[in-house]
């Protein structure tokens, strides 16, 4: 009986460690941060590329935009430009192969450290000259080597100065 209790306690240790990590980090932690985007200069009718730079906290990873399983939550950038500007394309970086120590045969496709997403914006040919505010969010799910945390949304915003 003591042997069975000892086995159950040993098996529960990783779960307790994951719960302690979640409790330590708290629900308000952003596991991904973003650099501010300098004001973007654009011409009406011409595509303009904008780099959005993100940083994953050390010791954590987020799934890439194309995870290897339909059950994993992909990292996605959603931008909401104002009328007169459209998002023509979002270009995500390739993820890095990553395996967990308890399952080395299964590889995940993730972002760790720094990664950038390129947005191609197109002001309409008839767009009026002036400043336009673009807002959005990065949807992601962060994981450590012991636990995955609830999905989060990181707000992003920047200004686009359109010239004729």
SSE arrangement:
Blueprint: H1 2-25, E1 32-34, E2 40-43, E3 48-56, E4 61-63, E5 76-80, E6 85-91, E7 96-100, E8 103-111, E9 114-123, E10 130-140, E11 142-143, E12 152-163
Parallel strand pairs: 2-12
Antiparallel strand pairs: 1-3, 3-9, 4-8, 4-11, 5-10, 6-9, 7-8, 10-12
Description of the molecule:
This protein is mainly beta and 164 residues long. It has one domain (28-163): Immunoglobulin-like, CATH 2.60.40. It is 15% helix and 49% strand. The chain is built from one helix and twelve strands, in the order αββββββββββββ. The chain has one helix at residues 2-25, and strands at residues 32-34, 40-43, 48-56, 61-63, 76-80, 85-91, 96-100, 103-111, 114-123, 130-140, 142-143, 152-163. The strands form three sheets. A four-stranded antiparallel beta sheet has the order 1-3-9-6, with no helix packed on it. Strands 2-12-10-5 form a four-stranded mixed beta sheet, with no helix packed on it. Strands 7-8-4-11 form a four-stranded antiparallel beta sheet, with no helix packed on it. Strand 7 and strand 8 form a beta hairpin. The longest helix is centred in the N-terminal third of the chain and has 24 residues, at 2-25. The chain is elongated, with a radius of gyration of 21 Å.
List keywords for this structure.
15% helix; mainly beta; four-stranded antiparallel sheet; 1 helix; Immunoglobulin-like; 12 strands; elongated; disordered N terminus; 164 residues; four-stranded mixed sheet
And the CATH topology?
A: Immunoglobulin-like
Termini Cα gap? 81 Å
Total domain count: 1
Strand content is: over 45%
Q: Main sheet?
A: 4 strands, antiparallel
- Structure classification: mainly beta
- The SSE order reads HEEEEEEEEEEEE
What's the total count of β strands?
12
Query: What is the mean pLDDT?
Result: 85
| Radius of gyration, taken over Cα atoms and rounded to an integer in Å | 21 Å
**Molecular shape:** elongated
Q: What would CATH call the class?
A: Mainly Beta
Helix proportion of residues, in percent?
10-25%
Q: Identify the strand order in the major beta sheet.
A: 1-3-9-6
**SS summary, helix count:** 1
Can you tell me the residue ranges where pLDDT is under 50 for at least 5 consecutive residues? 1-25
Q: Give the CATH architecture.
A: Sandwich
């Amino acid at each position: 009986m003591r042997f069975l209790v000892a086995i159950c306690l040993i098996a529960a240790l990783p779960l307790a460690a994951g719960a302690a990590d979640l409790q330590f980090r708290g629900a308000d932690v952003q596991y991904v941060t973003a650099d501010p985007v300098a004001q973007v200069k654009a011409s009406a009718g011409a595509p303009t590329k904008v780099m959005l730079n993100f940083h994953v906290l050390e010791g954590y990873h987020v799934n890439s935009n194309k995870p290897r399983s339909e059950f994993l939550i992909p990292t996605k950038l959603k931008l909401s430009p104002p009328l007169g500007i459209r998002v023509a394309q979002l270009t995500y970086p390739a993820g890095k192969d990553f395996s967990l120590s308890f399952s080395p045969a299964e590889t995940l496709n993730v972002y760790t450290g720094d990664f950038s997403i390129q947005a191609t914006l197109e002001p309409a040919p008839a767009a009026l000259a002036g400043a336009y505010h673009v807002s959005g969010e990065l949807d992601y799910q962060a994981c450590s080597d012991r636990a995955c945390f609830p999905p989060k949304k990181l707000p992003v915003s920047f200004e686009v100065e359109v010239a004729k």
